[in-house]
Design a protein that fits this description.
- The chain contains 15 helices and eight strands.
- By secondary structure, it is α/β, with parallel strands linked by helices.
- It folds into two domains: 9-158, Rossmann fold (3-Layer(aba) Sandwich); 162-351, Dehydroquinate synthase-like - alpha domain (Dehydroquinate synthase-like, alpha domain, Up-down Bundle).
- Strands 1-8-5-4-2-3 form a six-stranded parallel beta sheet, sandwiched between helices.
- A hairpin with a 5-residue loop joins strand 6 (129-133) and strand 7.
- The longest helix has 21 residues, at 219-239.
- The radius of gyration is 20 Å and the shape is globular.
Length: 352
C-alpha cells in the first residue's frame, strides 16, 4: 500500500487570502515567526500587488521571489536559495506554472508549502507531481509532495479568465477515460488499481458531470470546481502516481506539446478534453456523455480552433503512446490507422 499524506487545510472562501496566517496558526502556532518566501511572477505581482504586500506583512515581512521560467533548473535554484537562506515556508501564489515550480522547490528543500492558486486550470494545485521544462520545449513530470495547505480565495478566482476555468473543467472531464485506461492496464498486469484513489477520481468527474450550476463565474461553481480538482490531486497522492487522472487522452496532449508546439498552442485542460473524445471512442464507451459535457460547458474542443490540422491530429495520436511507453492504455490495443483517426477529426469538426 502506498503511504500518503493529506493537507492540513483545504479552504475555499471569499477573502481568505487576507487570513492565511490566522487559519494556518491553528496547525502551526508559530507560523508567523517562520521565515517565508512568496513565489509568484511579475504579471501577478502587478495584478495582486496589495494582496501580496498584505501576505508579506502577515508572514513577518517575507520576501517575494519572482519566477522567470518554469524549468527544472529554476525549481532547483529556488530550492537552493531557500536552503541557503534558512527559509521554512514557501507560499506559491499563482497559476500552474508558478505552483508547480514552488511545489517542487518545497519538496527538494523540505519546506512547508502553502498553495494559493489564482486560477483553476488543472488539478496540479493538489497533485503530488510537478510538470517542469527540461530542454528546449520538452517537459517532464516529476514526483514531489502535495501542499501542506490549499487555500482558495473565491474572490480572486472570480477574476480569472473564463478560458482558464474551462481548462480546469476539461482536466476533470478527462478522468472519465483515464480511469478506464487504468482499469485496462490493471487487467494486463501493468498497473494496480487502488480502489480508494479510483473512487476519489470518479467522484471528481461526477462532481462536474452531474453539476446543475453551469455559470462558470458563480461563487458556487468555483467551489464545485475546486473540490473536483482537489479530489483529482488527492487521488494521485493516494495511488502513488498519476494513473487516476492521466490516460491516453493525456498522452495525446503530451504528443502535441512535444512534436507540434510550433504549430499548436492549446491549453493543457482543453487538449486533454479534446483527447477524451477520441479516447472514449477507442474504448467503445458512451460517447454521448462526453459530447453532452463538452457542449454544456461550451469547451472549445474543435481542433481547427487551435490550429490543429487533420495531419497534426492524426500524427499526435499515432505518436501518443511513445510519449510515455511505460503507460499501458487503449492505445496499445486500438486501431490507430490514418483513416480511422481522420474520421474522428472530421466528427469533432462538425460536432463542435
Amino acid at each position: 500500500m502506498n503511504n500518503f499524506r493529506l493537507p492540513y487545510h483545504l479552504i475555499v472562501q471569499e477573502g481568505i487570502f487576507e487570513q492565511v496566517d490566522k487559519v494556518m496558526a491553528d496547525y502551526v502556532p508559530d507560523i508567523n515567526n517562520k521565515k517565508a518566501i512568496i513565489v509568484t511572477d511579475g504579471n501577478l505581482q502587478q495584478l495582486f500587488g496589495k494582496l501580496i504586500s498584505a501576505l508579506q506583512e502577515d508572514f513577518g515581512d517575507s520576501e517575494v521571489y519572482l519566477v522567470q521560467n518554469n524549468y527544472f533548473d529554476d525549481a532547483v535554484a529556488l530550492a537552493k536559495y531557500v536552503c541557503m537562506n534558512n527559509i521554512q515556508v514557501i507560499i506559491g501564489f499563482g497559476g500552474g506554472t508558478v505552483l508547480d515550480l514552488a511545489k517542487y522547490a518545497a519538496f527538494v528543500s523540505k519546506s512547508m508549502y502553502l498553495c494559493l492558486p489564482t486560477t483553476l486550470s488543472n488539478d496540479s494545485l493538489a497533485s503530488p507531481v510537478a510538470v517542469l521544462g527540461t530542454e528546449g520545449k520538452a517537459r517532464k513530470t516529476f514526483k514531489c509532495t502535495i501542499p501542506d495547505a490549499i487555500i482558495v480565495d473565491v474572490n480572486v478566482i472570480m477574476g480569472a479568465p473564463e478560458k482558464q476555468l474551462m481548462a480546469g473543467i476539461g482536466d476533470t472531464i478527462s478522468k472519465y477515460t483515464a480511469l478506464n485506461d487504468w482499469k485496462l492496464a490493471h487487467t494486463v498486469g501493468n498497473s494496480h488499481v487502488d480502489d480508494f484513489a479510483y473512487m476519489l477520481s470518479k467522484m471528481a468527474f461526477n462532481t462536474i458531470c452531474f453539476n446543475e450550476e453551469k455559470e462558470l463565474k458563480s461563487k458556487s461553481f468555483i467551489k464545485i470546481l475546486t473540490q473536483a480538482l482537489v479530489m483529482g490531486g488527492l487521488a494521485m497522492e493516494i495511488a502513488g502516481d498519476s494513473r487516476p487522472a492521466s490516460g491516453s487522452e493525456h498522452l495525446f496532449c503530451h504528443a502535441l506539446e512535444e512534436n507540434y508546439s510550433e504549430q499548436v498552442n492549446v491549453t493543457h485542460g482543453i487538449a486533454v478534453a479534446m483527447g477524451s473524445y477520441v479516447a472514449c471512442k477507442l474504448q467503445n464507451r458512451n460517447i454521448e456523455k462526453i459530447i453532452r459535457l463538452l457542449k454544456e460547458y461550451r469547451l472549445p474542443v474543435k481542433p481547427s480552433t487551435w490550429g490543429i490540422t487533420e495531419e497534426i491530429f492524426v500524427g499526435a495520436w499515432q505518436q501518443a503512446a511513445a510519449s510515455r511507453p511505460d503507460r499501458y492504455t487503449i492505445l496499445n490495443e486500438a486501431d490507430l490507422s490514418y483513416e480511422r483517426l481522420a474520421g474522428f477529426y472530421r466528427e469533432m469538426e462538425s460536432l463542435f
